[in-house]
Design a protein that fits this description.
The complex is a heterodimer. Chain A is 39% helix and 26% strand. Chain A is built from nine helices and ten strands. Chain B folds into two domains: 250 residues, no CATH class; 202 residues. Classes of the chains: A alpha/beta, B mainly alpha.
Amino acid sequence: MSAGMDAVSVKDLTKKYGSKVALSSITFGVEGGTFFGCFGPNGAGKSTLLRILTGQIQQTSGEAKVLGLDCRTQGVEIKRLVGIVPEVESPPSYLTASEFLEFAGKVRGIDDLDKKVKRWLDFFELQEAHGTLCRDLSKGMRQKVMLAAAFIHEPKLLFLDEPFINLDPIYQRKLREYLTELRDEGRTIFLNSHILEIAQRLCQEVIILDKGKVLTRENMSDMARRGEDLEGLFMRLVGGNHAGPP
Amino acid sequence: MPGLLNLMLREEYRLHVSYSSSRVFFSLPLYVLLIAFFLGATLNTLQPSINLNEMLLFVNGGVFVYGMGVGAFGFLGQTYLERRTGRANFLVAMPFLLPFSFRKAFASLYLRDIIFYTLLIIIPGMGGVMIASLVAHFRLTSILLATLAVFLSFLLGMSFSFMASVAYMHSVKLFGVVIGGFMVLLGGYGFLHLYPLANVLPPLLFQYSVPPFGTDIASAALWLVVSVVVVVGFSMAAILGVIAEPLTAATSVKDRYLNYHQRMAWARSYRSLLAKDILDMRRSGAVSKMLLAYVAPLVFLGFTTWYVNHGLRIPVGFNTVFYAAMVGSFGVMFYSWLTNLDSVDYYETLPVNVPQLIRTKLITFFVLTSIISTAFVLAITLANGEDRFLWVALPVLYITSAYSVISTAYLTGLSPNSVLFSPGILSRFAIISILPDLCITILSFSLDSTPLIAAAGIGLVCFALLTTTLIFYRSLDKKWCSTGFT
């Protein structure tokens, strides 16, 4: 995916769960090589959007494409090309961390699997859980397993739904540094998160969703020039809509 | 407790409605009512072949076994607890977060299913027989008393199964003791002839003490009290014994995935998924549970037909071919276990779709059951001295197995347990599974008298089944490719 070409393109995308509208006719694009952030309050539609883009669920209407592939009909092809960290860390209960990475590698048909599995076990220090089934791992360790499985095939495009959740500060930093490296290499990253401080340092472009609609799309450099940070923007656009009683 | 029970009932209702719709869900009792009406209305015509005494023995025995299938909360609840980190989360797991005990949670789960099955199946069943009484002239009191006996048989099966599964949560040995005790009780009837079969099932002794069989009020009261005491005893033992996590330490295992992957080369493009499924099943201990769930109905079938032929002395020509067809259709239960082993949320992150996983489950099914089912049919053949039928029985076994399981997979995908609650699917499933079995059974009866005609007929049925199986198998992609894993 060369820079300049849309890695993600969404046009008039709507998703309804029965009568509830999760996404309402949203349109945006993500240029290849961008670290793109998607933010919004709980229930804004961020995870629904990510699940549509990765072919996990289908939109009610509109068009969604990832790497030029139709999300509605080419979900498996999209998943082959991208890395996905879901919002819930749920690796298979009865495999060990290294077995899950081997499994993910075999399903993806990765060459040189031993070396890559070792690299990610080392990166997340999962070796210390050697021989432990995923069901017996802590939530943080399970999150590391899911991250390793998303990174193992070195995808050009990553979809990350709250990747920092459950990680201790050391691994939050380590992951942030790795994502910065990927950004500098020109890979495309689509991030859903509530941790605005981390997102502030990583993202180049952002959208803010609320009640299934795109409230704004911003370039982080432009925001910096205006002297506004992500938290300020978020509170200005969304805070007032959701402020509780004093 | 009533508040929690109320919420659990709503949770169960919403779970089922999420698979279909409230309209479809509420048509299930109507469906049960219609079947009960049909059976009730034709009861008198069956009387020359099988008397009411024997009929109620089968009904209560069948309901007891059904209750056993429903009540294994020790296994089921544990699955729910383990899934608390996935997308699906259940109220039974709330004691991890809220100040109430797992005993209370499991007791509510138990009561929830008693209410659920009573309202959805037992009461509509009674209603159907009541309407049929307009044609068949049953007495209202007889229907009510028979329903009470059936209800108690159901509770007995449920509570026994609940207790046995909780025993398993503690240790396999304790589980062995509970099951062993039950086998000894059965053996006292079957091998030592110490007492009649009804004595194993106290609600049946209650049934035989009240109209239309008799009016022995003292005996009826005694067996009613015994039934209630046994049900309450089993239930209390189970509820008091509930634990949140099995009493086993986190096990350390060797990495085996790649070994399995290497050994599954024959499965070609499915080898990665198949290796994981087989390893999953071995590690989770599900292989033994599932094989038990598969072997138990086989033993039950063998026992029932033996009882009809030798106990009741009704000369029905059950032979090896009949058994082969029945064994094939039992695969449905095994498939539903296979799809309920673990959360499948993580497949959403991999380049795999639902039809691929369904096919993997089908391959797993054949890998795990082929040897057992073949051995069962061979054993029955040898026991009955019917080796002349083996050339028909084995193809019937393999074809009906493939047909039953693949048609179930086609109709229900990865959620057979829940989807089969939809009456529409249940009707199609019943027609699909019962009709061919019925044809083969009837044809098998004449294998000795008119072997060529019977074999040709069975061959035709098998050809039709094979063709339908292939159509279902090829249609899996179209039907399930747009469905997600969660």
